[in-house]
From TrEMBL:
Protein name: Putative 3-methyladenine DNA glycosylase
Organism phylogeny: Bacteria, Bacillati, Bacillota, Bacilli, Bacillales
PANTHER family recorded: DNA-3-METHYLADENINE GLYCOSYLASE
Keywords: DNA damage, DNA repair, Glycosidase, Hydrolase
Pfam family, one: Pur_DNA_glyco
GO molecular function annotations of the record: alkylbase DNA N-glycosylase activity; DNA binding
Assigned EC number: 3.2.2.-
Domain of life: Bacteria
Gene3D superfamilies per the UniProt record, alphabetical: Methylpurine-DNA glycosylase (MPG) (3.10.300.10)
UniProt-listed GO biological process terms: base-excision repair
Amino acid sequence: MKPIEVTFFQQPTLELARHLLGKYIVHEHPRGVLIGKIVETEAYMGPDDRAAHSFGNRRTKRTEVMFGEPGLIYTYQMHTHTLINVVSAPTDIPNAILIRAVEPVEGLDLMKEFRNDLPMKQWTSGPGKLTKAMGISMEHYGSHWTDKPLYMAEGEHVASVSTGPRIGIQNSGEAVHYPYRFWETDNPFISKTR
DNA sequence: GAGAGGATCAACT
DNA sequence: GTTGATCCTCTCG
């Protein structure tokens, strides 16, 4: 499995969010290779998006990586979970795309173990779940999606894409209704709806 | 150095 | 529908 071309990340954020669907996330974990196909994403449009951490060009130690080049990995902690993003847009424009769900492709035994023997549909059907199933944590903050051991690879063609409002954001004014969520239509591994 | 809060999940009633 | 878990970062002093 080879990392994807770095030029893939050099497209407008909303297009990138849509084109991420079907790509593979590959993690060459010490205990085995883990692969998941991306089936759900959410775009966060930086300066103009009340729901984004980088709203109003807010620049802190946490959001710093979003001001870097597209294709960097932005991880952060949410309660007991780690969430993972793809940095988008040219340097100094802090956009990011949250990976909300993947479909298990390889390394199923290890994912099952990481997810405490839960039913397969619950392994990766949410942003906090998939990071646990694939062994992703804060140590991946700031590395690039084209670098091992955690990288993105060409995947499968996605026949049908659905669009809708994002999940889990509140008090974000109009931003709550923006149709910045993309998922593969009818895929069983997408996360919950509102 | 203390306190608050969040792009979540799972286990309740 | 509600709530506890319990982690990192940000803000204020």
